[in-house]
Amino acid sequence: MSAEVDVMPVAKDEHEIERLSDFLHGSLGQDSYFQETNGFHVDGISIETAVLPKGWVHRLIPEVDPASGATGWCLDPHDLAAAKLIAGRPKDLDFVQVLIDARLVDPAVVDDAIASISDDRSTAASGRLAKMAATGLPDTERSVWHRRREQALRDRMTRTSEKSPAELLAQLLDSLDKE
To answer: Over 80: is that where the pLDDT of 159 sits?
Structure first.
């Protein structure tokens, strides 16, 4: 298990995201009292930290804390796997292999996500995925797996009353693309 959690605060502009990310990193980052107490640290990241597939903001998944009711919006595991395959670091590849072996992602969906990324590393990422995919979801189980996943996602969406930050993030990404 990783001892770090990447967190991107949601804000109306990239400067506020950077400020809040720095605050998170300073307060909850590596070698902080928070890490000493909880056994993991938080890395504050910006909207441009990872290379992500097109449309990722519309696939965010809510994670609701049962004690407080607070909602965190997490990357879809397929988008996360694609970003980690693009990054290509050994720890990222190990993480993706676990996702595939545990059948938490469908390699075919991850490959489609990689194909939507305009990056020089996309071909290498698809090649890495092809080598890993043999231990993943068999074709005979794919349709049942996707039906169950869709139901689980619908159930998860009912657990929060918070609006997804997708619209705000999409606007921010559009403004960054125009710069």
So the answer is: yes
